[in-house]
């Protein structure tokens, strides 16, 4: 099913993606983008959680982790159906030159799961431990930029994924902390 809800926006945003990819290549940041994309695949969160348990007081750290886990669980319950409903084509559908390197994990582009996951993990962390905010926000932003820089997503996919993850995590944080 190809809905084309975003066709007009895609044609505008694909140029932003093309420029972002070209900039990453010109500045030698393709390796950084690929590494950040791998970080966003989810494997970074267990070591971060372990580190949080080691450096924080355990009760406080456990609340943060429980809030993050609940947020992620809710987000990944909603995510697949949202992605299928929106059915947004990826930038490489408009610009085949963007179809290089490892392919995307699924067919559709929006919302961006990496950004949603980063937000769902970061919001409880920041709410419960404000000194972590600069690191969490930078990590979130770099992971968001990376998927545009490798040509797999539009900027609006990243924004929507971030908003989705944060809007799920915020009420969970209020209830848990």
Strand content bin: under 5%
What's the total helix number?
A: 8
Helix and strand sequence: HHHHHHHH
Secondary structural class: mainly alpha
Cα radius of gyration in angstroms: 17 Å
Low-confidence stretches: none
Calculate the terminal CA-CA distance, rounded to whole Å.
Answer: 42 Å
Q: Mean pLDDT, nearest integer?
A: 83
What is the helical fraction, as a range of percent?
A: over 70%
The largest pleated sheet is described as: none
Shape: globular
How many β-strand runs? 0
Task: Walk me through what this model shows.
The model has no long low-confidence stretch (mean pLDDT 83). Helix content is 73%, strand content 0%. By secondary structure, the chain is an all-alpha fold.
